[in-house]
Amino acid sequence: MNEPLAERMRPKTLEDYISQHHLVGEKGSLTHQIRKGMVPSLILWGPPGTGKTTLAHIIANESERPFYTLSAISSGVKDVREVIGKAKQSGGLFTSKNPILFIDEIHRFSKSQQDSLLGAVEKGWVTLIGATTENPSFEVIPALLSRCQVYVLNPFGKEDLETLLKRAIKQDSLLKSKKIKLRETEALLRLSGGDGRKLLNIFELVISAEDKEEVTITDAMVMAKVQKNTVLYDKTGEQHYDIISAFIKSIRGSDPNGAVYWLARMIEGGEDVKFIARRMLISASEDIGLANPTALVIANSTFQAVTTIGYPEARIILSQCAIYLATSPKSNASYLAVKKAQQTVRETGDLSVPLALRNAPTRLMKDLGYGEDYKYAHDYENNFVAEEFLPEELSGTAFYSPSANPREKAIKEYLAKRWKNKYEG
């Protein structure tokens, strides 16, 4: 039997499926739909090895539907159309038995490939299930995304991963022939990076290296058996998230050396240039903001440039941007302002727009007082009127609090001259 352990232990039913209780637990958002066989087209988004492919197979089995699968790495538009043609023949239109078309790594599909799916999804010829490790908001075209529900799979926790190991020891036909004792699991869990598939395959490697019938798993034994216990950069595993985190924290901490080092780790590992540039674009606004508004312009130019150029030259542009961001003054005031405003919206609900601020495109609206008391700022000295633009219930509220950097100190002085009660002191 040449199947790896992870494949041999792939769950076949919801009862055997580990973790993701928010989706397929007793009160999971997908559980009832799967039981009824009325599953919508959906995108499963989560880290590698968290059960996206397995869940797609289970959905097909539980709902007794034909199952077709494509890999975005090796399939083109022609392959998509061929599968859709087969699906149309095997399933009736608008029935609960529509075939399922599973596309692994759907974020790798080009726009034209994703476009070729639209008609089949919209007309109900197939129920699409896409799996992705990347944010579908960025990687899936809006027209297709609007026709799918997005479900987020969480990384496996320690308890989930240990459950996978214990189940394999108890149930796998090959492992049952040995007496295996799990004395320590830290090394196995760390090497797996939270990837269940990788965990089981490393575990099998360790066990197969032992000729004895009785095997005791310790951290030292695992590290000795797994020769290459770390990689420079694994863009499909936990390091993908850990290293980008270290990179952004280096920028936030104004350490250009740290930023360039972690950038180099990602470049050497072949990380997607758009992924790196997109995170710098976010950091330029979240961590630098109004302390240096030019940072957002630089980051956006970087994103456009590296998307056009690609490796290897893109590394120079990425480095320039990373160093610029790391050496820029920092402010998260804009981030905190919108966070505070969102929290207020959740707490206060949909407060009415004051009449003076409402649009009045019709005579009736004007008669009702829409826009009647609005004072046009440019008609007043310094282009300013000391009247708030908030619902009455929030009068006096300040969401934005300028940080203590030179640029925002100037902003604070500007605001204090106009809104004395909010920005003095």
Description:
With 425 residues, the protein is an alpha/beta fold. It is built from 21 helices and seven strands. It has helices spanning 5-8, 21-24, 31-36, 52-63, 77-90, 111-123, 136-139, 142-145, 158-171, 186-192, 196-208, 219-225, 238-252, 256-268, 273-288, 294-309, 314-326, 333-348, 363-367, 406-418, 420-423, and strands spanning 42-45, 67-71, 100-104, 127-132, 149-152, 179-182, 214-217. The strands form two sheets. The protein has a five-stranded parallel β-sheet, sandwiched between helices. A two-stranded parallel ribbon has the order 6-7. Strand 2 (67-71), helix 5 (77-90) and strand 3 form a beta-alpha-beta unit. Helix 5 (77-90) runs parallel beside helix 6, helix 14 runs antiparallel to helix 17 and helix 15 (273-288) packs parallel to helix 17. The N and C termini lie far apart (75 Å). The model is unreliable at 228-232 (pLDDT under 50).
The averaged pLDDT comes out at 85
Widest β-sheet, arrangement of strands: 2-3-4-1-5
Determine the number of helices (DSSP H or I, runs of at least 4 residues). Answer: 21
Low-confidence stretches: 228-232
Q: Kindly estimate the percentage of residues that lie in beta strands according to DSSP.
A: 5-15%
Overall 3D shape: globular
Element-level helix/strand string? HHHEHEHEHEHHEHEHHEHHHHHHHHHH
Count the beta strands. Answer: 7
State the end-to-end distance: 75 Å
Which radius of gyration do the C-alpha atoms yield?
Answer: 27 Å
Largest sheet: 5 strands, parallel
Class based on secondary structure composition and strand pairing? alpha/beta
